[in-house]
Amino acid sequence: MNLKERIEAFIKLGEEISNVLNHQAITSGGKKLDALIPEIHHRNGWFTEQNVIHRLQILSEGLSSQRMTSWIEGYSINENNKHKTVGVILAGNIPMVGFDDFRCVLISGNKFIGKLASDDILLMPLLNEILIEIEPRFSEFVEFTEGPLRGIDAIIATGSNNSAEYFKHFFSKYPNIIRGNRNGVAVLTGKESGEELSRLGEDIFRYFGLGCRNVTKLFVPENYNFNLFFESIYPWGSTILQNNKYMNNYDYHKTLYLLSSIPLLDNNFLLIKEDAGISSPPGVLFYEYYYSKEDLNTKLSNLEDKIQCLIGNSRDIKNSIQIGNSQKTGPLDYADGVDVLKFLIELS
Description:
Helix content is 39%, strand content 15%. The chain is of the alpha/beta class.
């Protein structure tokens, strides 16, 4: 396959994902995916039907002809280079979180060998099945394995901070991209409207806060009043309260904090805790005060290697994403800011 053919196959994959969402799947893989969506939460309680649909919608939009063409224009891929075999260890915190690495490996003309997370072993293989139905030649370039990654030329691995240290040691002899924990951080000025704070709920609660782009930490001005914030996110309770896994986390941490006499703000489905940390557990949102622009910039600078994305509507917040848009990713939104496609192209 040449680059144009690979791109066209992924564009058609995006179209078939859209067909699945409209219950008009054409491929057999698409029909299997359509049937699986309502049932996937029985295997993984975090993967609700609503969240799987949301993730598929984002993937479909990112595979549009316009976005794929715009993405690839910034690179020079030599079609004469011999393909490399790239091992990819996928995370399982949100549905199909490894898709971007999958796309990059195949678009670059390399072979993908993926090791799936136990929490997400069904969805990615189905997307691959659809892709191969669209373009059968991809069958020689994709493999999923439960065993060790053998015969690889490079590695892309995503996991916890502890597993990232292990990956760095174990795969040190290979060209690699190793990712650990990162989180989304939101900066509020106190001037946000109720509508803006309602959209912030999307950044906090989508995927129950498990994604690396979810907001787990707020920076708020001194003496910030959380009343409007709680009022604005209240509608999310109808979704959150129905998920046992999320509420078990909420109840556990509430009990733990109360037994330790830790001050909390609470609306019966979200605990707000003042904490210098950044990675809050599901059911908890950390916050920290800032006292000036200089103070805020210092705090953000100290957390730079732990922040996946910065959310806020103030022009004073550099490189920030508009509130409500943290999960609306496209091909250029590389995790940890590392250009995966550039890395793969340069392997040759």
